[in-house]
Amino acid sequence: MRRGTKLVVAVAVLAVCAFAATAYATLSAAPPNNSVKFRGATPGSGKGLKIGYISLGESVPFVVLVSNSIKKQAKIAGAQLVFCDSALDAAKALDCAKSFKTQGVQGYLNFDLFANASAQICKAGPQVPVISIGLHRRPGARQLRQGAARVQV
What we know:
This protein is an alpha/beta fold. It contains 4 helices and 5 strands, in the order H-E-H-E-H-E-H-E-E. The chain has a 5-stranded parallel sheet, sandwiched between helices. The chain is globular.
């Protein structure tokens, strides 16, 4: 890996960690009676569905929280969740997408840090709906489209 790429990755990891620390501090400081109750999965709503999830990297505490929430909601919905950890590596995320193609997932979530690799990841995976989590885009930018519906979160 080139030095410039390593620097970008290091800065990105630090940014994610800073975001996670800020989010944790904000959530723990909010009074429970003022918090918003988010709507979760409807029990049984995902029965018969096979959904993939490419984790950004389980070495990041905030990502573990996100992953655990996704696993919990998939279980409530009754969907089969195929989990794959990219370990903060775009090449591993690409391999995850390829494995989803062979495993027959019907849609997947991609917690992706590398915006420059997202088109390749979408193209390598099955041509099914993909929800991208965490891609940094300029305000008003549209998510990439590769044959199937793509949603920017």
